[in-house]
Amino acid sequence: MARILAIDFGTKRTGLAVTDVLQIIASGLTTVNTNELIKFLKEYTNKEQVELFLVGEPKQMDNTASESEKYILPFINNLKKEFPSIPIQRVDERFTSKMAFQTMIDSGLKKNQRKNKALIDEISATLILQSYLYSK
């Protein structure tokens, strides 16, 4: 088996999470500046076997696409072009940022540590991946 890599795409930063090779455990990988994301993914996939990219799909409460979808779609097209052999699946990411923030509170992180937006992005990617694994 190979890893599944989840992507919480943002215009500035992108959170990444990955499974173990048995696809049992979701773990935060890192947060990358979005302008360096494809380069990072190329380096990562050269070292690790990835069988699926999960890309968060932000939706409004009425199930329509979020405003940020207009930035995600060009990224997905680029991802398909750069990694034609790795399939891409979308996962509803509603509330992941709020859940990530609550996770930080529940973990006992101090207020100034909870302001770390990169950590929120990484935890959000982990939540996206975890929800996918639960649904399998």
TrEMBL record:
Top-level taxon: Bacteria
Which regions span the lipid bilayer? none
The gene name on file is ruvX
Family, per entry:
Belongs to the YqgF HJR family.
Task: From the Swiss-Prot or TrEMBL record, give the protein name.
Answer: Putative pre-16S rRNA nuclease
Q: What does this protein do?
A: Could be a nuclease involved in processing of the 5'-end of pre-16S rRNA.
Q: What EC class is this?
A: hydrolase
* Residue ranges constituting the YqgF/RNase H-like domain according to the UniProt record: 2-100
Q: Where in the cell is it found?
A: Cytoplasm
Q: Which Pfam families match?
A: RuvX (PF03652)
What keywords appear on the UniProt entry?
Cytoplasm, Hydrolase, Nuclease, Ribosome biogenesis
Q: What EC number(s) does this enzyme carry?
A: 3.1.-.-
Look up and give the organism this protein is from: Flavivirga aquimarina
